[in-house]
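ok trying this again, last paste got cut off
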Amino acid sequence: MVDTVSLREAFAERFGGTPQLFRAPGRVNLIGEHTDYNDGFVMPAALEFEARAAASVRDDRIVRIHSLNNGQSAEIDLSAEGNTPRGDWTDYAFGVAVMLAAAGKQFSGADILVSSSVPVGSGLSSSAALEVVVGYTLLSLSGHAVDTVELAQICQKAENDYVGMRCGIMDQFISCNGVHDHALMIDCRSLEKKPVPIDPKARIVVANSMVHHALADGEYNKRRNSCEEGVRLLTPALGDIAALRDVSFAALEENRDFLPELTYRRCRHIVTENERVLTAADVLERGDLDAFGQLMNASHASMRDDYEISCAEVDTLVEIAQSQAGVFGARMTGGGFGGCVVALVAAEAVDGFIENVRSAYREATGHTSDIFACAPQDGAGPLDE
């Protein structure tokens, strides 16, 4: 991760002057996958990996951005008509600027240098971290007090309408609103949030499968379409339901004949996953780590078999993780088709877990997993010196 001194120096070399510094974290989702765009429940935690920005305000409406990660620069003139996506990483940054303007926010242009330690394609939400840090930066430079819930909504809209990825709000919300040493139980309909403590007897461990299959984005949108089809087909039987959030498991089973088999299995994942998240919040509150781990394991089975968003490498990594001494549970995390596995591991077993999982996964697949233990962090804000 680029330190603050290096960030300032790089900014001065690129743009000149003395910048202000901001940060926005990536995230790992402990449980509740693909439920956010179904108005459901999720339980992510913000990570030490984060996007950082050094920035200064301009006296025009031009936003210039330079990435230390890829060495690329770009700019957008917000006073121009018809700013459209470019089909590259800058859409996540410029999309937020465009949507802030569309929301009526008054802000000046800016010179922004960004650097991110969130691994791209890992399922740890590098895109949301970039969106949030750019949005937070633009608002702060123009003197706005940042409403982090509103910022999350604007960043989600940028990804939905500018980038074209029909994601839910979880990634942007946790990047904006993370709580140190806590996961965050989020109701994605009301946007109510509840910090849930992580028992210090356990650590969150993330293992990167080091694979990312290219079909992920298109398949993500297909899953969302299946959920919407399920709501449409169940509405005649269940009445006015807005999303799968409104469907109980009993109601789904009673009316499964209304659904094609594939649509039924997609819906079954969402309905049961919502129930798992609600139960998970209760068991974590009372420190029942074994019960939480069982819910994580069940979540992975549902993603693998019903929602079909896992892949061979991730399944192998999960099986290895679940077999280790001291592990409470493990599951895929993120959009799917590669990326990371999250495990909850007894604190005293973490070192052995990391060593054993890395070795066994390398032997099984030839990939060397990047594995780390982490503690939940606060959400976006100014970057401390």
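PB: full thing came through this time. The first strand starts at residue 20 and ends at 31.
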